[in-house]
Amino acid sequence: MKKFLAACAILLCVGMTTRAQTFEWDVHFQTRFDNRENEKVPLAKSRTIFGSVLSPTIGVAWGEGSRFMAGVELMSEFGAEKLLNTPQPIAYYSYKDEHFGAYAGIFHRSNMIGSYANTIFSSSYTFYNQLLHGTLLQYKGKYGKLELGLDWDGKYEADTPNREAFRVFSAGRFEIPFFFAGYSFHMYHLASSGTGIKGVCDNIIAYPYVGVNFASALPLDKFYIQLGWQQSAQRDRKASSEFMLPNGGEVEFRIEKWGVGLLDIFYYGDNLLPLYGISGLYSCEPLYQAPYGILNHAEIYYTAVKRNGINLKFQLKFKTDGKHLGMEQVANLVINLNNKQFGQEITFGRKRDAVKSQTLN
pLDDT category, 90, cuts 50, 70, 90? Predict the structure, then answer.
């Protein structure tokens, strides 16, 4: 870690010696309390997630949208024997203009702009895995947005059980008045390890959806109905070369006013996790095994604060697999701060002045 920070400091110093550089900083902070009561739900564990994550970064910006940032992620799980988890480095290059964005390196998940199905990323997964290792490409236009990312989270090492693992993910959304359509996609690949694990596994899931948005015609902040289809293709090549193709339909409904909202997601279909139990293959809730063919997620929430880079949200969730009911209480505080919010801009070097034509003068 010391060598990493020293290398980042050298890169920052080099950047500051060039012309028209500005010093920048970002701070991402999250505290999450998530109490899950699933005593009567066989597929879900009762537990409490309670901890904080601090991710400060500093760097330089130059040109027409380029930035290099470096920092560290510090996570603490309250009540754990170890007060602080192993610090994780952050270092990335990013580019942004009016429509396009790009990231490369180790960067925070909060830079993502896509909306992903619960079958792809669960809230617990994103809390414990806040950093992405790879690349991210983005586009924003008048009628929608699109992103494509690669997260490389496993490296093959000889004589160890570590598996080579990576995921490709993408999401897009197109909107016109009263109507919208979109998709989320995820492909996760687990290869062999140096010792012990020789099978190769694939988990591919696509979720296309369409919906109707009534909020603009009513005195509501959000009011929509969304219909989607969960299509998966999975295989464990050690057991079979054939893909399993579980699928199912999903209906999502949301209504919100003054920060108070009601959300319901109803799934009907196959077991979407046929290879459940293989380490790390899934990053979604285990209830999508759907032993009785259905899954319903209902929640009441209140966004108490959403301004000045602060978001404080309370949620009461009810989840059922058709025969058993579990409950979840969540309080989530997220703070995103940066130098631009405070009007701070420190410039290093000199800006290059335009050359004036004596003839025109």
Answer: very high
**Neighbouring residues of 227: CB distance < 8 A, sequence distance ≥ 6:** 209, 210, 211, 249, 250, 251, 252
CA distances from 207 to 57, 116, 227 (A): 34, 9, 10
pLDDT at 6: 55
Range from 21-25, 155-159, 216-220, 356-360 carrying the lowest mean pLDDT? 356-360
pLDDT digits (tens, 9 = 90+) for 233-283: 999 988 788 999 999 999 999 999 999 999 999 999 999 999 998 767 899
Enumerate domains of the chain plus CATH numbers.
35-348 (2.40.160)
Roughly how many angstroms between the first and final C-alpha of the chain, as a whole number? 57
Report whether pLDDT(219) > 70.
yes
Q: Show Cβ contacts of residue 148 under 8 Å, excluding neighbours closer than 6 positions.
A: 136, 137, 168, 169, 170
Instruction: Classify the C-alpha dihedral 250-255-259-262 as positive or negative.
Output: negative
Q: Cα–Cα distances in Å, from 93 out to 14, 81, 128?
A: 15, 35, 23
At residue 296, the pLDDT reads: 96
Q: Are 138 and 147 in contact (CB under 8 A)?
A: yes
Asked if pLDDT for residue 329 goes beyond 80, the answer is yes
Pairing type for strands 100-108 and 163-176 reads unpaired
Is 350 a residue whose pLDDT tops 70?
no
Name all contacts of 345-349 with Cβ < 8 Å and 24+ positions apart: 345/22, 346/22, 346/23, 347/20, 347/21, 347/22, 347/23, 348/16, 348/17, 348/21, 348/22, 348/23, 348/60, 349/16, 349/17, 349/18, 349/19, 349/20, 349/21
